[in-house]
Each structure stands twice: as C-alpha cells, then as structure tokens.
Amino acid sequence: xxxxxxxxxxxxxxxxxxxxxxxxxxxxxxxxxxxxxxxxxxxxxxxxxxxxxxxxxxxxxxxxxxxxxxxxxxxxxxxxxxxxxxxxxxxxxxxxxxxxxxxxxxxxxxxxxxxxxxxxxxxxxxxxxxxxxxxxxxxxxxxxxxxxxxxxxxxxxxxxxxxxxxxxxxxxxxxxxxxxxxxxxxxxxxxxxxxxxxxxxxxxxxxxxxxxxxxxxxxxxxxxxxxxxxxxxxxxxxxxxxxxxxxxxxxxxxxxxxxxxxxxxxxxxxxxxxxxxxxxxxxxxxxxxxxxxxxxxxxxxxxxxxxxxxxxxxxxxxxxxxxxxxxxxxxxxxxxxxxxxxxxxxxxxxxxxxxxxxxxxxxxxxxxxxxxxxxxxxxxxxxxxxxxx
Length: 389
What we know:
It is built from 13 helices and 14 strands. By secondary structure, the chain is α/β, with parallel strands linked by helices. The chain folds into 2 domains: about 300 residues, Arginase, Chain A; about 70 residues, no CATH class. Helix 2 crosses helix 10 and helix 9 runs parallel beside helix 10. The radius of gyration is 20 Å and the shape is globular.
C-alpha cells in the first residue's frame, strides 16, 4: 500500500510547530516526511488525500486540495473521546488515469477489509467510481448517497468524468449498486430525463429546497448509505468559494457539517469522500477550513455511534405494526430504545436472504410512521419493495 502514497509535508502548514496535545495535528498518526508508514493495527479511521483531477470538469486543480484541508484540520481539537486515526498521505497521480483509479480502489479495498473507514479528500468526484469498485472486490451490494446539486449521470456514451460517474456505476458489470440517493439537487441543473431515469431505477432524489425545510429528514437517508460522496459545489458559493462550479445557492456551511455528522453517526456507513475542493478559487482558504470542520463533525459522529443497526438482534427495539387500507402488506416499524431512531422492515423473497439481508431494514423517520398511520405508503418503503421483489 505504501508505494501509492507520498507523505504529508507539514513544513508549509501555518502553525504546525504550535499544535496543542489534543489537536489533530498531534493526535492523528500521520505519514509525515521522514517518518515510517503508519501501522494499521487497531485503527478506526484513515484519512487519504487523492491528487487525481484529470477528469474534473471546469475544476482542474482540485487534486491539490488535501494538504489545504489538512492544514486546517490539524489545528482542530478532538472531542471527548479517544481517537485512533491515521493519515496515510496523498495517493499520487498515476502515469495514466487508470493507474490512479486502480491505486485508489485497491487502497480503499484493503482498508475496508480491515474494517477501517476511509475519509477521502479529493480530487475530482469521479473518484466515487473507484470507491464503488473497492466494494466490488468484497462482493458486497451497497447504497451510495451523493450530496450534490446535480445527478452526474452525463449524456449517452460520455467518458467517465466528474459529471458522469454515476452512469458508469449504473452500467458497470457486475453491478453491486442496490440504491442511489441524491441530496440537495437544484432543478435548474438537472435534465428532466435524468429525473425520470432516477424514478425508473427506483432511486431517490431530494430537492434542495425541500431538504432545507427540515434537515432532520436527511438523517435516515444518510443512515442508509454505505458510501457518501460529498461534492462541495452543493454548498453555496458564499460559504464555499473554492470550486470552479460553485453557485449562489446550496447548503449553508453549518448544514453541510450537520450532514457530515449524520454520516459519521451511521453504523452502516463505511467510507466517505469530500470532492472538488479547489484551492485556486478558495478565498482565504475558506472552503478548506469548512471541509476540515465537516471532517471534524464526521469524526465526532463516528465516535458517538450507538451501534443499534437492527439487522440481527431486535430485542432492544419497540415494534409497531401498521396495516394500510386496501394494500396487501402490513408495514412493520422498529424504534431503537437507544437512539429513538426508526426503521421499516420491508419483506423480500426468502431465497434472496443473503443478497438482500443488509437492505430490507430501511432507515426512516417518525414522519414515515405517521404517514403509514394516515393510511399512506411511505415512498422509501415502496421503492425498496420494488427492488427487493
């Protein structure tokens, strides 16, 4: 693994010689210039920078982002928990784009097999495809959640790039994608045909305006993800100017941090990537600072996980049964006694137990339970049922 990485050089980091004992600059075991490659024994989280940006659209230069984010992250204090985090440095650009993709997917696969959660600092968002390929090596079907102002489906036979990676994932064989969710799309950036395609595939897309009315509804969407891909262009330009495709509208910085904490808090999530941060456009390193805080919130969520994903033992849950009038299926809800979070149990064919056992328990909110009690079928239940059938 070490051969793919270049060490972190903190000599140009502002304040690197003044880190306090409990800041991440001291707490994280980083692969620094002149030091040995960190051991991965008993590690929970691994930070990885990726220099690849040759497929960035209107945003070349984002491959330089990782060290700018680190400079700000290392100044932040860890929370009230004991962290076991390594920073493996930066995966350097390969001679070809395929060399880079191989290196990223191979490194991620090795970390996932060790139950280490990678935190990827891109680089361009097409690296989400590499993240997907890492799970293929584990023969595991997965859910991807993208926080993005568009769907990145591309058009027709578009080559793989930062704005078409999703179509490559959908068309890849063998396909291990069970569900894709978009959070924060903006209608004027999305072709109507793409919205229809998402519906036909039983994927779910959540418009920015609707999401921002109740940010708590984002939590169960993120809780269903194995992979989160965060495009900083989904954040409004005033809060995150460091992106060639930044726009006036989007999430506020604190909302982006809230989503990141939801991701960390999810027992199911096993990797996250922050992409398209471009230092060339970043006024006063504001975007790098924001992403550093987003990573802080992800780490904080991770170390506050409740470990109540109800895939085996349901004894610590309150069970609710709701019958829907004129529908053949009863909906079974589970509420965790630890965290007060909700799930729906969606039935599936018995002969598909191994394939679908990770996906039939669908995270939901209390409002979904209220919807069912009002004799209506929750959208997420129906979408999952279609795919499980």
